[in-house]
Amino acid sequence: MSIAMQTPADGRNRPKSLDDQAKPALPDWRLVGLTVVAVGAAAGTVVSIVDYVSPSSGIKGAEGAILVMASTAILALLAAALFRIPPQRRILRGLVFAAALLDIIGSGVAAYFLESNALVALLAIALVGWLIAVASRRPVHA
Known about the structure:
The chain contains four helices and two strands. By secondary structure, it is mainly alpha-helical. The longest helix is centred in the N-terminal third of the chain and has 25 residues, at 29-53. It starts with a strand and ends in a 7-residue tail after the last helix.
């Protein structure tokens, strides 16, 4: 690893100060959390569809599987909506965050009763993403 050198007018090489070097950008953890929720919900929708049509899943054609398909698809839509709602609309964002939490918990319980372990794991991942999104602070812009 080399230190970048700059040449001043007197011809001597000096290392650049820390202020002159590029600083890495920190990720916006709220967006990371929402991405985890969206990916978990989309994958959960796919898993619930596969469980519904697969004869080896044990829940082929069950009404509960239809419910979980719909609720995980709605969760994906809620996560997509949170990307689009501006931070100034705090009440709307809060309501959508609350609806997403209820959807994650309800879908997770339904998946548990359907004995779909993969779906329970994906919804647990979505819950972790929700927690990251809620616990993160908005980035401060100067």
